[in-house]
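Quick note —
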Amino acid sequence: MSRTRGPTGILDAVDHVFSLVAAACMMLIMLVVVADVVMRYFFAMPLAWSYDVISLYLMVGMFFFGVSDTLRENGHIGIDILQRSMPAPMRHIGEAAGYLVSAMVTAAIGWLAFQRSLSAWQNEEALSGAYLWPTWIALVPVVIGGVLLTLRNLLLTATNLRDAFGGAQGTEHAPTPNLEERI
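Predicted structure written out below.
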């Protein structure tokens, strides 16, 4: 984790905490699946709630709580065929534009999820299964992940603009991974 101070350091720390929550969600998924299999095949008493909890809450939490930290680590899939041959200022301007568009999209996702979650909470909406599952809870990770990803995209936009116009190269975000090193 980065030791940078200021807003970048705060965002890095928050991302790290939520990536730990995402890891906990993954661990809970594995534990619930194992418990369900044991209960189903050894005791003929499956956990009636396991599918609902995993699909409604834990999978959503695992993805959205970890997505911003994954971007911080440059862990998303990217196509960099032309990137190595581009001059650095042009590459940074292109990346800034991409991150800005991504920030607008993730802000919209977060805002719409917030509105939908608020509506579901006010209307006491629930999905029926083995139990009644409140739907607004499933949208909370989407809102949090959308906010964090928007902030990370805005930070990367600013960093790339700074780097495009003569700032310190690559100090705020992870470098583009070298594919040859991974093979």
